[in-house]
TrEMBL record:
This is Sporulation related protein. GO terms for molecular function: peptidoglycan binding. The lineage of its organism: Bacteria, Pseudomonadati, Bacteroidota, Flavobacteriia, Flavobacteriales. It comes from the Bacteria.
Length: 129
């Protein structure tokens, strides 16, 4: 049986490579430079995502009609009520403007009484129920 000897040069080369890789590797420090507008965009997206779940929330429908009129109604509503969010929903063949996201009916009715003064055709609804 023949005994194989390792070449001393090969051993020295492997040892030098392993030592070199260890000594010149990068540190694990990461600096992320991010535009502040990106965080604002993420917050808006989170707000929109939280309002998508309409199954168990009450809303007030303030308009039912054409797309142009729905956009105008929503923009005037947002100027008057800055603390409430609103959205336009398409229901063939018309558009609806829904505002607010209320957890309880009592909370929705309080706001509904205020909204009905400016929008007399407003309805208190619970979508998908």
């Amino acid at each position: 049986m023949r005994i194989l000897r390792t070449c001393p040069y090969l051993t020295l080369l492997v040892l030098a490579l392993v030592t070199g890789i260890k000594s010149y590797s990068q540190t694990a420090k990461i600096n992320i430079i991010q535009d502040p507008k990106f965080e604002m965009l993420l917050n808006e997206k989170r707000k929109i995502n939280s309002s998508i779940t309409v199954n168990d929330r009450y809303k007030v429908q303030i308009f039912y009609g054409t797309n142009e009129e729905a956009k105008k109604t929503l923009s005037t509503f947002k100027k008057e009520y800055k603390n409430l969010d609103g959205t336009i929903i398409y229901s063939n063949p018309n558009f609806k403007v829904w505002v607010g996201t209320f957890k309880t009916r009592i909370e929705a009715e309080k706001q509904y009484k205020e909204i009905v003064k400016k929008y007399p055709t407003a309805l208190l609804i619970r979508p998908n129920k």
